[in-house]
Amino acid sequence: MNRTRNTGLAVAVALALLAPLLAGTALVIRAASQSPLESAADVAPLIATVERAERFREAQVAIAVETADDFSPVTQASGVVTTLAIDAGTEVTTGTVVGTVNDANVIAYVSDSPLFRDISRGLTGRDVATAQTLLATLGFYSGPADGKAGPATERAIVAFNKANGHGDKNPVLSLASLTWVGPTPVTVAKPSVAVGDTVAPGDELFSTTTSLAAIKVTETPNVPRDAEVEIVVGDVTAPYDPGSGRVTEPDAVAAIAAALGTATEGVGTVRLVTPQEVGTVPASAVVSDPTGATCLFPDVTGAPVLIVPLGGTLGTVDLDIALAGQPVLLNPRDVRTDLTCGAPGS
Questions:
Q1: Hey, which of 139, 192, 213, 301 has its CA 20 to 30 A from 52?
Q2: What is the end-to-end Cα distance of the chain in Å, rounded?
Q3: What is the pLDDT of residues 134-151, one digit of tens each?
Q4: Distance between CA atoms of 209 and 172, rounded to whole angstroms?
């Protein structure tokens, strides 16, 4: 009987002790379920200013290595190959002596298109300008490449012919003395003729190796087009012309191809050469209302400041640099009752 009374007394004491704790727990749960506006006294407004930042406005692009088609330069000369000055691996550019036919040099030249006729005084045209550029590159001509073969051009032709075994006073730049290798220098893969062979116009002199031509760039709408930009691939940075879809400068093409290693495709970044200065705020400070307007607030009661987001990074929004220094409420959703971006009644 005493044991039963003692047990009942212990239970009663335990319940008396637990009652305040249970009541406190209920209060904590109720307080935690309140909205920030219902417990505004516990949430302070956080006010800062719009900060300055620099952005390169980067855009990812797909890139691919493009190679030039194999090309086989031909001769326009007739006769016997008396010497051969090229071998596998030889780089051939403007002025390279490929060999001799009947002891007269056959000179390579690089240009957008080949000469289609012999050049002499009195002729005009783009092919004359090509010949003038060739003669100037070789040091025989110092006048303008104006496409008009006058006395200066004729003197240069005579000097070229004398230096290369085509006559001491020959005033005609003959196709037989030249071989066109294309719009860029080439590398010999294999000679197609040997000393002692007889050649005729149109005969192949040598084949070329496949060479790098360009880096194809597949742009996205995010590529900046209103300022100078560059392309970055790995550790390589090169100039890039927005909208061109190509990197063609030989050193840049080679460097980007090397950065890709054995791959022929990859990803690059097109970005501003000079970074753009912007204002920046935490994303929590920016509000979009049901009308589609976007704004920020200077404080708890101040009028909204309409903004146009320019982009941003993870957790931030970029704004016009003119807003730098503007006071901004960082937690408007916690401390403001009015989150509309327009004036009341607008």
A1: 301
A2: 81
A3: 999 999 999 999 999 999
A4: 33
Q: Does 132 map to a domain?
A: yes
- Residue 343 — very low, low, confident or very high, per pLDDT cuts 50/70/90? low
Residues 202 and 83 in one domain: yes
What separation in angstroms does the CA of 320 have from each of 48, 271, 276, 278, 305? 17, 19, 10, 6, 12
Dump the DSSP string for 20-38: HHHHHHHHHHHHHHS-TTT
Q: Is residue 230 part of a domain?
A: yes
What totals of helices (H) and strands (E) does the chain contain, helices first?
5, 22
What SS3 state is found at 136? helix
The strands making up 59-67's β-sheet, listed across from edge to edge, are: 236-240, 229-233, 265-272, 59-67, 212-218, 246-247
Q: pLDDT grade, residue 70 (50/70/90)? A: low
The sheet carrying 186-191 orders its strands as 91-92, 186-191, 206-208
- In this structure, is residue 113 part of a structural domain? yes
